[in-house]
User: Fold these one by one.
Assistant:
Number 1:
Amino acid sequence: MKKETYSIHSINKLSADIIDMWVKADDIAKNAVPGQFVSIYCDDKSTLLPRPISICDTDSENGLLRLVFRIAGKGTKEFSEKKAGDTLDIIGPLGNGYTASFESIKAMDNPSVTVMGGGIGIPPMLKTAKALNSAGINVNIVLGYRDFLFLNDEFSKYGNVYLSTEDGSFGTKGNVIDCIRENNIKSDAILACGPLPMLRGIKSYAADNNIKTWISLEEKMACGIGACLACVCKSTDIDSHSMVKNKRICKDGPVFDAMEVDFS
Amino acid sequence: MKTSVTMCGIEFKNPVTTASGTFGSGMEYSDFVDLSKLGAVTTKGVANIPWPGNPTPRIAETYGGMINAIGLQNPGIDTFLKRDVPYLREHDAKIIVNVCGKSTEDYVETVERLSDADVDMLEINISCPNVKEGGIAFGQDPKAVESITNEVKKHSKKPIIMKLSPNVTDITVMAKAAECGGADALSLINTITGMKIDINRRTFAVANKTGGLSGPAIHPVAVRMVYQAANAVNLPIIGMGGIATYEDALEFIMAGATMVAVGTANFNNPAVTTDIIAGIEAYMKKYGIEDINELIGCVK
């Protein structure tokens, strides 16, 4: 594995601060599994840490990788200002993705799976919903937004889409859990990515209702490959690699069984 | 063309190692770097028992660098000896083990456990700014530096490198104290204590409030301190602090370092260490340098 230079196939804005980019990256498009991420490196050498960006989708036939991200700081701003044909330095795919959860789900008897995304945690759930759908699994999709919607139309190809917005402008007024309750959505398994308060809420909802749940976490990262121990989360049990109650989000995650993660 | 250097009777195939904490125990980087090509791998600090480290966020990016307060999370010496040492040897790497502790007894226990292990040198971390006890508490007082060096030396069968903190008034005082204590070599610099405030959240960017500044931003400070230490003591030095290119590495060597350690730059490019080795070789070829030892301390 190494840092490779790839060229941008297309770049568009989904809103004032959300970028939708397709990158020509045959190997990543071929190898990535849902829930993985890539590290993108800045041209400006005053910003030396890679930016972890979730993989939204891949088109392995055409060797394309789709990244949908929010402009959150200097690095993502630099990426957002690039044009089609410009290059990006990337390492990936990184992290574990939802592979383990897919194995568990496939072992269930005709399961109902709820895919949940909140805010900028929505993009990685697109490839996740797509993969579940193509495996013939019944998928409900719950997307939580502050106000402005993005990607929701594309999700409808892979399952029933339910929306929630904080201001009630679309779908349920409130959060993704309010949306699940309002629409009486039953789940045998939940796969989720979103901000920490949402994931906390989902973990407690899943525990109350005995639903097998996997969540994707984020944290400030430095190496992105499991060496520096910057991006750890607390775990309920002693981890076999760290030998303490800590797991590496970049390497052991970003996807964890919700019951392994200690949010206290 | 000779790129190998010798420290404490041990030959390293080139002068480039890794800075402790940025490279784990090499395992994660072996997807990117042939570990046998490095002069040595310096491992992340290991203590007598597992340490959980600090709360997150543990890092923040700064202009030309970063602040970290990992808090020396490590799996403890048992796991390290069972898992990491054999892994590095299988990959034909020279091993410098960084040792951390909260008390003299902690350091001594770990050093004793490593004495009969298949490793090459021990680097004693008395300069971590991110742990309350131990660490830097030993590294800012010359009497403490001398006495911890002395204790560790008494219990070690391996050559001892003392890793010094830049967070002192006069680095030469600390270098001399380590020399008086019997150190075989010195490593410098550890990170410079810094702080970053997140103006949007109106709080500290790292949970520990302060952290260690590293990266290209600190390189000139580190070169100056290596030069001062090299001229104050008669010990080989591993120079480090903000090396991102072969030019940065050569500055340390010319200032008096026998070896150099690459740290934060690994985060920008996991293969940077081998790029730096290739750059040093190209420089030697360009200027007709037969032996890298000609360059060590060549700037007086």
Number 2:
Amino acid sequence: MNTTLRRALGAALVGVLGLPALAACGGSGSSKNSESSGGKGDKTVTLVSHDSFAASDSVLKEFTQQTGYTVKVLKSGDAGQAVNQAILSKSHPQGDVFFGVDNTLLSRALDNGLFTSYQAKGLDRVPGDLQLDAAQHRVTPIDTGDICVNYDRAYFADHKLAPPQTLDDLVKPEYKNLLVTENSATSSPGLAFQLATIAKFGDDGWQDYWKKLKDNNVEVVDGWEQAYNSRFSGSAAGKKAKGDKPLVVSYASSPPAEVLDMKPQPDPKDAPTGVATGTCFRQTEFAGLLKGAKNPDGGKALIDFLLSKTFQEDMPLQMFVKPANQDAKLPEVFTKYGAQIDSSATVDPQKIAKNRDQWVKAWSSLVLK
Amino acid sequence: MTARDAEKASRATVRPTAVRLGLMALPLAFFGVFFAFPVASIVSRGLKSDGQWQFGRIGEVLADPETGHVLWFTTWQAAASTALTLALALPGAYVFARFDFPGKQLLRAVVTVPFVLPTVVVGSAFLALLGHGGLLDEWWGIRLDTTVWAILVAHVFFNYAVVVRTVGGLWAQLDPRQEEAARVLGAGRLAAWRRVTLPALAPAVAAAALMVFLFTFTSFGVVQILGGPRYATLEVEIYQQTAQLLDLPTAAVLTLLQFLAVALLLAVHARTVRRREATLRLVSAARTARRPQGAGQWALLAAVLGTVVLLVLVPLAVLVLRSFDGPDGYGLAFYRALASAGDNGGTFVVAPLEAIGNSAAYGLAATALAVVVGGLAAAALTRREGRLVRGFDALLMLPLGTSAVTVGFGFLISLDEPPLDLRTSWILVPLAQALVGVPFVVRTMLPVLRAVDHRLREAAAVLGASPLRAWREVDLPLVGRALAVAAGFAFAVSLGEFGATVFIARPDSPTLPVAVARLLGRPGELNYGQAMALSTILMLVCAAALLVLERLRTDRTGEF
């Protein structure tokens, strides 16, 4: 439909339905952040992200104090969904900055021309191996997180069994029936775990590995929530749901999260769960300035801020990820209960973009059918 | 007849058509802009590349064996769910129609709660029941999750009320004396039932079956959560292709396929509904129900109540129990956490209690929209003749059979330019909810409007009243209660709407179901418990709304 016609139709309908009147009377309910970015000129900067985005109010207020910009956050679905929505609406972007595109989705976003270049302040404090677009700076690395197999400490202590540490361990007979993972097609940790096996065993070997894993009765569920909160025996929610799988594909930050969630705040020696450090895949999350942003200056300031120590130190307890900025300190609960992961697997984003669909298809027919 | 009378008569026939078209204008505009246009945009985005239509894609996708599998599974699970629902719910319809027992109103409200609950909530309740470590598992070692059975049982849970209300509503008003007369004339009990009651009920049963089939054919959340990775309906596949894989061409073809199937269903539905409205001798429901008599009737009542307890109450109870099962034993810990979450939560969870306010505000706006649009549509549809009218009727039902992701993403790419840049506006959520609410308003209002004796209107017209005045003086007083019931239904459906809302809800003002889903997506017992507590609150709000409706129920409302 052409634009003029669309506008005419829209104008007529808005008039007929009395939307302006409705908007006026209903707006009071959600007036807190409802100032649209067009309204007061350039004082609002809009951040588009996925559902897991979180930041302390005080930290966002500090940004406003420093720069005069108010942040409005728009979240839509999981990471994949958020990126896809941004791509679909790229001719009229919903905001100024997108945060939350990770290395498994990066190529899709870049190939679709979602971002414009901006070299953030403080980028020199970010390790080089995280800067996957160092030539053009269309995206800025903000945080990293590892997806690893978590284990239930109590189970392995009770059974006098050493918890598995590597991918090779998982196919051993003593760990039969113990692992629950997620569907690669529907879950980002599920895909990450598959990528870890692809990184380790290569294009030719990963399918053989999964055959062995299947023979070892790996269980696959659709989402992380189900795997971690109801099937895993080590998490508090899983215990309550009588989960019977002492091994689960989750995040390296899940053990500190378990400790934080205990009430009253205890000080245990160990987290109730541990991380098999040889099974990890590294996810790096990036932020970028959206092409066609209404407030590019505010967007640039926001990207600088996302990389600042203030935001980076707030992030771990809000989103359970690690800061990309080396100067940012991790909270104690992370250093005390988090695992030290020396070697995480990664796969080149371009290779992921090229093979992703085919990998997931092959995995589905191999493991699910 | 004088010349003047004749002129008046001819004016009277012309005018209703004009009036009807006028009444249709707003609903048509509403569906055009907020349904047809977004859906057409996303489908054409998928099927066009570089401005050229790629119809070849349709053949390719259809030829893919995977498409055949999905279509086959979608169809047979819907058929099986429908059969199972009818088998379990028809006795219930009879009991609710013919028997009087204490707590009947409350129970009728309670069995309707599932119908408006969001699937995320129901999914977790059923997992807690049928899944690993669930009640069945603990007692008998039976696990049904990731099996088709879990899907079927959950579908019965959702749609029990559809059959009880649609069939039971009519059954209650069938004059039992007709059957008694047949028996007096020598027919056996079975023969009397088969020859008298069954033919009268058949159209209602068919209509209910079709609605259940439609709802289960387009099932999304239940299949995704309970079916595990092995089962996918068309709706699930459309979601995957659109939201996860961004394979818009495939999604577009699947959307068209689903449209075709749903349009077919609606065409059949329209036919049966028309037949159903054949003249029946109806009496007040209050006169047909009595206390059960004899061991057989008591046993039937007990069996039905047992089914309701097992199928509907137990899953709901599991949810409530979990919401109290706090870290230090049973208590209100999760509810307290809900109340205080806003203090330290940063931007993640807007204080969940605020979500209740958001839900109510969105729900009211959606209800207002749905009642205006649906009310006008129902008024236009009151006269049933004309192909145009029937087509319009089917169009209004179409959103029920359309994938929420198609609508949500359609909004995203089509309502993106002024003056319709509504993507970040709060109005988008009520608009999407109203799309789902309108069919309910129409279905509730229509039987009542059609039951208004047209001679009353004619009398008013003869006495010189304008059509508007006649409507105000004749129709409105008669349909006032139906309007209230319709509004209540639209409100309850808005509260539970999750699919489209999740794509467009503003993060600073999530609705209850969206807040539940977000809590479920976070690790830790506290979040899980809060999700259960919030679900319980949502359930109570829905139940309260429905209970109020029960009190308002008129005799002829109840297609749902």
